[in-house]
Amino acid sequence: MKSRQEIHDIVRRTLVELFELEAPAVVPEASFNDDLEIDSIDAVDLIDHLSRIFERRVSPRDFRSVRTVNDLIDCIDRLQTQ
Amino acid sequence: MMRGRTDRLHAGASGFIYSELSAVKRTDYYWLRLVGTGLWFLVFGLVTFVLGFLVLPVIRLLTWDRSRRRRRSRAVLGAGMRAFIHGARGTGCIDFEFIGREKLGRPGQLVVANHPTLIDVCFLLGFAPTASCIVKASHFRNLITRGAVIGAGYIPNAPTEEMIHAAEAALQQGETLLMFPEGTRTVPGKPLAMQRGAANVALRAARVLTPVYISCEPSTLSKNLPWYRIPPSRPKWTLRVGDDIDLEAYRDAPLPIASRRLHSDLAGLFAGGTPVRD
Lengths: 82, 278
Hints:
The complex is a heterodimer of chains A (82) and B (278). By secondary structure, chain A is mainly alpha-helical. Chain A has helices at 4-19, 40-54, 69-80. Chain B is 40% helix and 13% strand. Chain B is built from seven helices and seven strands, in the order ααββαβαβαβαββα.
């Protein structure tokens, strides 16, 4: 079980590495679509990568309501308690 | 360019503009071709339906092994599509030339092609029938085509996640996979609008990435015209299989970055005048 801060750090690091983003741009309020320009194809890559890191089969259904980085962190936090 | 009174403007590669009062000479038995085209459409719909709802289900009942069943179903559909194109050519409605078709059908090969006309897929699957294909999701609901696409185990293009993973699985299992990166027919006069799925799938799982350049002169069966606006002379399809694209060159970056680069390069290849006439 990872703390929310740990999840936050992992997610941030993943986004920066995978999408070659500037670290300052990856704030919790950043929207995937508008701010970070991450589209549906990217989302599949992101989900696959996160599934490997968190050792959980994460499905797109889980991410349906994820719009911002914060949503993603909350979602993963919620999933790991299931 | 000849101009006449027109309802719809068609600025295709051929440069012809069709009009009710055609100033362009109609040749190659225009009226017979028109009737023939209509008849071939009917035949195509009927045969697709029959294959999908009678023949493929019978194959399904008789063949328990899933991969053999799939192979047989695709072979049947492929034969149907080949017969269709040859028949259309034999009756003088179309002509075609397929250069390099022997390069298609390799295991783990992702074939990407542009999509100028309605029947592009018939040439590709007709001559590489073992291939799987990413197909518009609506074909899985369309009464005429659903039996065929489901029976052949083709892959719907939505939802995105399922398409990517199904495509990946197919390539990893050693299938040949056909994709039209534009997702729909090219709009004549507009640049190709390719989507990134093909590049992404290529880097995930393809052993080989092979482009096929398709052109049709004079243009017909394109996105902006109804089927009965056949060209004044017999349309000829030219399909040319290009050189394999080296995927290793893209593997030094994370997948989202690499796939954007490959996508951009692919778009460049197809936009670069699709040089079919060498």
